[in-house]
Amino acid sequence: MARIDHIRDLAPNVRELTLCLVEPGPSALHFLAGQSIAVEILLPENQSQTVRYYSLASPSIQSTRFTLLLSLADQGVGATYLFQQSEGATVQFQGPHGIFYLQEDKSQQILFIATGTGIAPFLSMLSSLLNNATTIPVTLYWGLRSERDLYYQAELQALADQYPCFSFVTTLSRAHQGWSGATGRVTELVARLPSVDGLAVYVCGHQPMVNEVSQILREKGDCPIYREQC
Q: Could you tell me if 44 and 66 lie in one domain?
């Protein structure tokens, strides 16, 4: 069991939840960077329960507190239920779960590709890599819709300033005039990669994007692709 300790609205349809473990339950949450938990959701129509999986966005070394990202964009039952909860509310969860986590191969450069709240597991992975003083080049491609959907930009820039091995590109598919950053879908950034030699690629987002990115990468050559649907 966990208690919602802090709520922060990041964008009109995106919310960050910080949760703290409480009894009864485990005294610590041990997970690999990139893994998820299954949150128990109460369905209002018949008061039955289901589960929804959310990637852990916090560093894996934080064993009693963890962070989830929610998106109301698709009006899913999980996000709708959790958006209705207030600070102090408790939630039941299972896990951690999943085989989508940071691999230990240190011979390859890393490319993270995300859309929307698919950024969540990569925040945990970045913390793991950078806190362990990696010198492997790490790049993040993150696709969002428009300026109103931007969040975590200052935090990512601070990481890029502190760690020379890390860089990121945020691209907007529906940018307004005056936006000076990258524009277009994140798949367009992937299509412009000159080569995939020496790359390990992690992809997280809606299934059509994950499929399209995987196809583009395979056409460019042979590289490991680790995929997660959100």
A: yes
pLDDT tens-place string over residues 34-48: 999 999 998 877 678
Specify whether 132 is located in the same domain as 158. yes
Alpha carbon 185 to its chain's center? 17
Tell me: do 38 and 62 sit in the same domain.
yes
d(CA 31, CA 217): 29
State the Cα angle at 110 between 149 and 147, rounded to 5°. 10
Tokens of 27: 């005294």
Beta carbons within 8 Å of 79's beta carbon, 6+ residues apart: 52, 70, 71, 72
- Residue 129 domain-assigned (yes or no): yes
Same domain flag for 114 and 225: yes
Whether this prediction's pTM lies above 0.90 is answered by yes
- Are 18 and 126 within one domain? no
pLDDT tens sequence across 160-191: 999 999 999 999 999 988 899 999 999 999 99
**Alpha helices, H only, the chain:** 77-83, 120-131, 153-162, 186-191, 207-220
Q: Which domain holds residue 89?
A: 2-97
